[in-house]
């Protein structure tokens, strides 16, 4: 925490159910910011990336760094819309055969970027030997043979992607996928330099070996300290890249470092500092309405959450308005997976949403009694969450809400560091966990696909063939957008009926940006920023 001079304070007491108390200090605006260095931008990233290998990456932290180092077939602009990347244009035959035309571009070592680079990389992504978190991504995109390859039933060479010539790449799909170009914005679809990967193996991602296709080069990586990048002189759009260098830091102490002018862009703002930050740094606190949704993940294979009555009761007792107030970001209460801002789906709510508190408690108690839980046999379970103060406060609030409503609910909290937490979830070694999902592209399938049986992201172990069929039906040839919206909405209703998960809120991201940075967008719901579009104002002085 930072130290301040003596000041008058306004102390706020919050109900016991919130498990919160705090004080708000009198805050004065900080002196006007004046940049002394124009040679780099320093950015807080969420956590330490697990890898910078596109085909092995999966979490947002890695995606953010790779997006600066590499380009894909497509990209997204400051409003989340799909735009050309290494492909200048594309066309399809009935949304089943997609052809991408590549621009003249080079790898950072001077080699030309060709369609064969993409073929190699997509095969590598889908090959189970790679062990990529998103190995099933092309299967979700209905690329020919992707599912069989992922399951080890076919060779990677049978994947439905081929180079028609050095600058033309073609995909063959088994279904009509109108959003296929949108899927190509994500880091795990970016090509890698084959000769480098084969020469150095897992060590190819070290700074001295890394070969880039994007605006920046990897110049240094000290784990849990920083990642350094510099402009790539071989980048096809090198002249439009304004900022010479980028340093990314794990999010740890970024707020204090922002105060000390050591960080230009933070990943977030501590929830108890948002209001004071807005007063101290007027105009520098940004609220971005994302498409991310946070929820509780019941493990359907583990008691007590293998019982739908328990899942429904707990969801019914969860006061989403209180949870959003705890975070203080302006998050919106959620009753379904997809955000109200996502295109192609309608908003629906469970039948109990507008019931009185008393009626919800009575019905939840009845369901729990029928499941065998009562004063003599309490409902006990653990809630897993990643080590984070905001998460701790939210889960603590929920525990008090449940306990106050139904005294025989006894939840204990378990926190783990990010990588351990991810391993625990992925191996199914939990009963209930606190998690969230941000879509890869602006289509409901990018959210709903995580509930498909067999999906690597289905940590809930939810299985419903009727649900899977609904998602398959959205890809039937000739489907109109209106018909797809209806099917997606039915899929959401099925998740609600099964209480497949417990939605909490649609997230608003809050961070801070120095006032002289231009090009940073508050309107990208996918949060896919790229530094190559930023600049300083005033411009870097002439030397």
From TrEMBL:
Residue stretches making up the Solute-binding protein family domain: 82-457
Compartment annotation: Cell envelope
Chain ranges passing through the membrane: none
One cellular-component annotation, GO: outer membrane-bounded periplasmic space
Coiled coil: none
Record-given protein name: Peptide ABC transporter substrate-binding protein
InterPro entries: Peptide/Ni-bd, SBP_5, SBP_5_dom
A Pfam match: SBP_bac_5
Gene Ontology annotations of biological process type: peptide transport
